[in-house]
Sequence to fold (218 residues):
Amino acid sequence: MTFMLGLDGGLLPLVQAGGTIGWILLGLSIVALALVFLHAWTIRRGRLLPAAQIQAIGECLQRGDLDGAMAFSVAQQGDGLPASIAEAAITRMRNSPLGAFEVHDAAEEAGIAEVARLGRSLEGLSVIAAIAPLLGLLGTVLGMVDAFQAIGDQGPQAAPELASSISLALVTTLLGLTLAIPCVALHAWFRVRLESIAAEAGLVMESVLAPLMAQDTP
Fold:
């Protein structure tokens, strides 16, 4: 009865029916929602590949102003992939005896490092997706233990109470799966989105860094 009221009356009755595990899952759902908003803001093309940043670095390199490109890239660190990639490429070019031949490798390594850093931020959703069903199962097992203890104490006449207790015990599994399924889907979606932007960044920066790679080429 309480379970059906939970379905009809909203989330709070279900959480209350789930006891301590239910409240933990509610807290995790709030954290997951915050992470979704954070990733929606950070993992987007306009932020990771800002057109103004690409244009400014490209113009500096076109006119051979390495100091200007370097200063701009350092100032823009953390605000987009182009600045991080350009800073790494210019630094490697200046410090390596191979000069411009190191630009491509340096740019690729910097891009991989930045994407890996952003990818690590997605692990929060992955962890929540993994532990939510386990917490739900834990709540169900605890509820089942209590239910069978009750029938052991009261005998066959406790059957109606047993059925009600089992239905309430399953609430935590329902809550855990309800949280885990969207987290799994959103984690995969953000991962694909990040990889798509990273692939585009590689193509864009190859064109932007072309003047740099040609400087020491015979």
User: Anything to note?
Assistant: Residues 19-43+123-201 form one domain.
